[in-house]
Design brief:
single chain; alpha/beta; Hypothetical protein af1432; eight-stranded mixed barrel; elongated; EAL_sf; RNase_Y/CdgJ; HDOD domain protein; HDOD
């Protein structure tokens, strides 16, 4: 796990109702610019704010800055267009490739934001791509933009750094539609917990996608070996899938829901975050041991499904990894009711098996015997299978860490 910090400053519409927020990566609780490159900062924001926190409310909008590399790698497509406003950084030049990408994003339903300087620099011949122009009240008076706003009536103008009542009134009178600044609220520094997939897992997925993108089984096998990556794949599938007739019941289903192209973009995003936190290794290993153990159990218990049991084991420690209540986490994932019930309250058939895992891990042999009797299992055989799962997990995870 790792704490990811970001500045969140609200934006208001002409009726002074909350319209959305701008997210900017920060390295701590102070509102200071980070020392890392822009693409890495963007990727960390997206990974922590979307994938570690699940889907967003229907009317939530976030402005996130994207540099040239992120735009060319189609990183914005990892997030739903109804929630994401693509802010093109000042360093981006209107090359043929970038202009083509921006047209693609707009076709997909994303809105593009640029600084007002775009009207006089290299972007002046491509202003039809811009949905929102951002104007700093620190650099300009609202009256200087009144004629421009009237001329570009199809676009929206955002007044930044509004700090006084008279600045707000002037901007409203000149046609600005969105407003941001200390007059409304200072930026809040927020923190989010994120868990990082193994770099080796990500690279393995990249290799398979490039060599044989139709090999869903191999992709699923690799993803299933890394709890963090599996969680982010499931979360991303939930965020991006427009229609799903069935609940996600196994890793393969999550991969199919996501699709190869979206998976490629997700892996690119996760590689760019450059997060590999070794102190999360123990929790991920324990979760994977549970998942492997539950999926290999020889049981005839009614309602038990090996694929769902794997998901239960793999996700059983996400509340600790993400420092969030399990109820909040599973509420954002399209899992079956029995899986959710087990993860939240350890109830139902999978909940009993999770309790069995817990007692084995804590050497509670009375508890082990109780659950084996309850589930009609042989306690010696169960212990042997658990040790096999732990050994198998150790072999897998030792080759994954970077």
């Amino acid at each position: 796990m790792a704490e990811v910090f970001f500045s969140c400053q609200p934006i208001f519409d002409k009726d002074l109702q909350h319209w959305g927020s701008e997210l900017l990566f920060r390295e701590g609780l102070e509102n200071k610019f980070p020392s890392i490159d822009e693409d890495t900062a963007t990727s960390r924001i997206l990974s922590a704010n979307f994938l570690a926190c699940g889907g967003k409310a229907e009317n939530t909008r976030y402005i996130v800055s994207f540099g040239e590399s992120s735009l060319m790698d189609e990183i914005p497509l990892s997030m739903p267009p109804q929630h994401l406003i693509i802010a093109v950084t000042d360093e981006c030049l209107p090359t043929q490739e970038i202009v083509s990408k921006l047209r693609t994003y707009r076709t997909e339903g994303y809105r593009i934001l640029m600084d007002g300087k775009a009207m006089t620099n290299e972007w002046r011949n491509h202003l039809e791509l811009v949905d929102i122009f951002s104007i700093s009240m620190e650099r300009s008076k609202p009256s200087e933009w009144e004629d421009v706003i009237s001329q570009f009536s199809q676009q929206v103008f955002l007044a930044r750094k509004v700090e006084k009542q008279d600045e707000l009134a002037a901007a409203q009178g000149c046609g600005f539609a969105l407003f941001q600044g200390y007059f409304f609220e200072k930026p809040q520094i927020k923190r989010s917990e994120d868990i990082a997939p193994s770099v080796m897992s990500l690279l393995d997925v990249c290799i398979i996608i490039n060599r044989n993108p139709d090999d869903i089984d191999t992709l699923t096998k690799i993803i299933s070996k890394d709890v963090s990556l599996l969680y982010k794949v499931v979360a991303s599938a939930n965020i991006l899938a427009k229609t799903k007739t069935n609940k996600i019941s196994n890793p393969r289903q999550a991969v199919v829901y996501l699709g190869v192209q979206a998976l490629r973009r997700l892996v690119s995003l996760l590689i760019m975050t450059n997060l590999n936190h070794q102190h999360a290794h123990q929790l991920q290993s324990a979760s994977l041991t549970r998942a492997t153990f539950l999926s290999m159990l020889d049981t005839n218990v009614r309602g038990f499904d090996r694929d769902e049991a794997f998901i239960v084991g793999a996700f059983s420690m996400l509340d600790v990894m993400l420092s969030k209540p399990m109820e909040d986490i599973v509420g954002e994932l399209d899992l079956s009711s029995e899986v959710k019930r087990a993860l939240i309250s350890k109830e139902g058939v999978y909940g009993h098996f999770l309790s069995l895992c817990h007692d084995i891990e804590h050497a509670n042999w009375n508890g082990l015997v109780h659950w084996c009797n309850q589930l009609k299992l042989n306690d010696k055989a169960v212990l042997k299978e658990y040790e096999q799962a732990r050994s198998s997990t150790a072999d897998m995870t030792s080759s994954m860490q970077v």
